[in-house]
Design goal:
flavoprotein, FAD binding, 5-stranded antiparallel sheet, 297 residues, FAD-bd_PCMH_sub2, 4-stranded antiparallel sheet, globular, disordered N terminus, Carbon-monoxide dehydrogenase medium subunit, Uridine Diphospho-n-acetylenolpyruvylglucosamine Reductase, domain 3, 3 domains, alpha+beta, 14 strands, Enolase-like, domain 1, Uridine Diphospho-n-acetylenolpyruvylglucosamine Reductase, domain 2
Length: 297
Amino acid sequence: MAANAQGVAEAPFVWHPRSAAEAWQLKATLGAEGVFTAGGTLLRTQWESGLAAMPNHLINIGEIEELHGLELDSETGTGGFGAMLTLSDIRTSPQVNTRFPLLTEAARSIAAPSIRNLATIGGNVLSMVGDSIPALLIYDPVLHWHDGSNGLKEPLSEWLSTAPVHAAWKERLLISIELTQPTMDSNTKRFVAYHKVGRRDAFTPSVVTAALSMQLDSDTRLSDVRLALGGGQTIPHRLETAELFLNGQLANKKTITEVYALILEQYEPKGDAFVPVSYRKKAAANLIASELWKAVR
C-alpha cells in the first residue's frame, strides 16, 4: 500500500484498460507493483486479513468487453466462458444449466447472492481453491491466456499442478475458460452430482467440494467416470485412480465399498484447526459412495 509523507495510507492508482492487450501491457510495465482486479472479492478478503499487501496499482479488467463473453456451441458441445462472467451470470443462464449443470450448481453454492453478483468465474479459478473448480474439472477445462504474443491454451488441471510454485502465470491475463460436454452413449444414461459440505453452506470455506459425472448402462455398468474433489485450502483435482477403478465395473455394493476404501487411502486434503484431514477424507469418500448408490437406484 502506498503512503504519503505523513505516513497515512493511500489508495492504489486504478488503471482502466479497454482491451486485453492494453491490460497485459500495463501489467508488463508495472510488474509486481500492478495487480489485475475484476470483482475484487478475493483480493479484498486477502487485504483485510493481512494475507496480501495492497499494491500501488490496480488494473481494472472489468471494462474489457472480450472477457464478458459466453459462447455455447451445440454442435461441438463446447462452451467458452469469459473470465469476467459473474457467478450470478452463470447461475441464472438456462443454456449453461442445460449443457453444464454442475457449473450451475457450483455457482449457486458459492457465497451470498450479493457476492455472486460481483465475483467472477475467472477470479474463482485463479484463487486455486475456488468451489467452482471441481465442477469445471469434470468438463475437460482449458484456460485461454493473453500472454503478449499469440495467446496460450493450458489445461486447467496442468495449471493447478504448477501454479502454487511457478508464478509466471501472474504476468498473463486470463481471457476465458473453455469447457467440453461429455459425449453421450445412446445405450446409457448419464448421472451427475455436485456437493459442497461446509459448516454454514455457502457462507464459509467448504470442508469438501465434490463433483462427479458417469454413465450407466442397463446392467448398471459404469463408464466415463469423472470424479473431482476439493474444499478448504485443498487444490481441487480429478481422482484418476478411482476413475480408472470404477470404469467397467458394475455399480454394486462390492464396487462402492472398494472405491470408498480407495478414496480414504489416496485422497490427501489439507486440514486446518477446525476440520482435520481425517474428517475431510471420510466426508469425501461418503459423498462419492452416496452418489453412486443414488445412481444405481
